[in-house]
Amino acid sequence: MESRLLDARDLICPMPVLKARKALKDMAPGEVLEVHATDPAAVKDFRAFCEATGHRLLSADPAEGGVTVFRIAKAR
Q1: Is the peptide bond before 29 cis (omega within 30 degrees of 0)?
Q2: How far apart are CA 55 and CA 40, in angstroms?
């Protein structure tokens, strides 16, 4: 399964989600987008985004430096 990386660190709401939406448009169903974000609201925002669009939020894991790593599988 292919995956892509989106660096959304230091961006604030709604930019991480908007950039992810744009990246997902160019991806094939089942591909995974990995997003690195520092906005504390991103956890809630990405959950809501995935529920609304049908994409699957595979994980939202904290990492060093206040970064959260999101893995999103594109919907079919």
Answers
A1: no
A2: 21
- Could you say which architecture CATH assigns to the domain 3-73? 2-Layer Sandwich (3.30)
pLDDT of residue 1: 59
Identity of the amino acid at 8: A
Inform me whether the pLDDT recorded for 3 exceeds 90.
Answer: no
- Residues 75 and 52 sit within 8 Å (Cβ to Cβ): no
Distance from first CA to last CA of the chain, Å, rounded?
A: 14
Residues taking part in catalysis:
13
How far apart (Å, rounded) are the C-alpha atoms in residues 8 and 10? 6
Task: For strands 3-8 and 32-37, give the pairing.
Answer: parallel
Cis-peptide, bond into residue 62, ω within 30° of zero: no
pLDDT tens readout for residues 31-57: 999 999 999 999 999 999 999 999 999
